[in-house]
Design goal:
126 residues; mainly alpha; 5 helices; 3% strand; transmembrane helix; DUF2127 domain-containing protein; membrane
């Protein structure tokens, strides 16, 4: 199928977010230190499980986007909002903006971009 350039960019951004969520998962498993004010290692299995699940989902979304699947647009919108909510929960429960800033910025840009009429037409949504 003919894939527009914008959809290819979205697929690469989904791969980037999968990588960032995998890094966050490793951080919450205690393998990588948090580089905020204190260089500490934190173990939180619940956050590690959620970020691992998000890394898997972003990989799946990237595959759907690469194939220009019609359902990828809606799933991308839902998972982007969910990822923004999870970043907000991390921020409220004691995380720092430094830990989630790239994720929030990329997710916000994706959410704005997929709402444009040209992108919706590429996926065949009305």
């Amino acid at each position: 199928m003919d894939r527009p350039v914008g959809v290819t960019i979205l697929a690469f951004l989904a791969v980037l977010l999968a990588f960032l969520n995998a890094i966050a998962m490793l951080r919450f498993l205690g393998f990588l230190p948090f580089l905020g004010v204190l260089d500490v290692r934190i173990f939180n299995f619940w956050y590690a499980l959620m970020y691992g699940l998000l890394a898997y989902v972003w990989t799946w979304v990237a595959q759907m986007l690469w194939q220009v699947d019609r359902q990828a647009w809606l799933f991308l919108a839902v998972i982007t909002v969910f990822n923004l909510c999870l970043a907000f929960v991390v921020l409220v429960t004691g995380g720092s903006w430094y830990d989630i800033n790239v994720t929030v910025i990329v997710n916000t840009l994706i959410l704005i971009y997929i709402m444009l009429p040209g992108v919706r037409d590429a996926f065949g949504t009305d």
